[in-house]
Amino acid sequence: MRKNLKPIGVKLRRKLMKKVSLKRELIMAVWATLEALKEKEIGIRATYAIVRNKKSLSAEVEAVQEASRPPEGFIAYERARLELCNKLCTKDADGQAILVQGRFQFDEESQASFNTQLSELQKQFKSALEETQQLDEQVGALMQDEVDVEIYEITMDQFKDGDLTVGQMEVLVDANIIPEDD
């Protein structure tokens, strides 16, 4: 019996794994796409590729999430701002805040009072807001950095019609997870 036999799938897996250089913002988009796809009932080969890619990208995703974590001072500011919004906003008959497209609603008198108190709050938390702005700029630059990651290719025949939206397909093609010549 021959001793140096490799399992049949090893050659195939190596061919489908490749190193690519991706901007971190694309890595985050790929991560969101893979998260959405894990909820779908897709074939076993595509599922395997999704799991492999998530494992490969997880360190970069965790690093971006950690770098994006807001400072404690900003969290305290945001709590105080939301309390102010809830205190002064227009409320419905049940006493619940009225939101339109995610924004608190104010009558004219409450809006003026809110603006004045918000200015005071912003002065009180000035250093935290400046720190957050600097963090946002740093994270923006971080997201533009290219990093080398190993990805596992997924071929189109591993998906059925309707498995991917146009946006998901675009992200996976941009990241070379689905090869353009496929």
Describe the structure.
By secondary structure, the chain is mostly helical. The protein has 2 domains: 11-68 and 144-174, no CATH class; 72-142, no CATH class. It has 7 helices and 4 strands, in the order αβαααββααβα. Strands 1-4 form a two-stranded antiparallel sheet. A hairpin with a 2-residue loop joins strand 2 (99-100) and strand 3 (103-104). Helix 2 crosses helix 3, helix 4 (72-88) packs antiparallel against helix 5 and helix 4 (72-88) packs across helix 6 (126-144). The chain is elongated and about 60 Å long. 14% of the residues are buried. Mean pLDDT is 88; it is low at 8-14.
- Total of helices: 7
Count every beta strand, where a strand is a DSSP E run of 2 or more residues: 4
Unreliable stretches (pLDDT < 50, length at least 5) are 8-14
Instruction: Report, as a whole number of angstroms, the end-to-end distance.
Output: 39 Å
Task: Give the strand content.
Answer: 5-15%
- The largest beta-sheet arranges its strands as 1-4
Please state the average pLDDT score. Answer: 88
Secondary-structure content class: mainly alpha
Roughly how much helix do the residues carry, as a percent range? 55-70%
The ordered string of helix (H) and strand (E) elements is HEHHHEEHHEH
Q: Judging from the principal axes of the Cα atoms, what is the shape?
A: elongated
What Rg do the Cα atoms give?
Answer: 24 Å
Labels describing this entry:
2 domains; 7 helices; 4 strands; elongated
Q: How would you concisely characterize the structure shown here?
A:
This protein has 182 residues and is mainly alpha-helical.
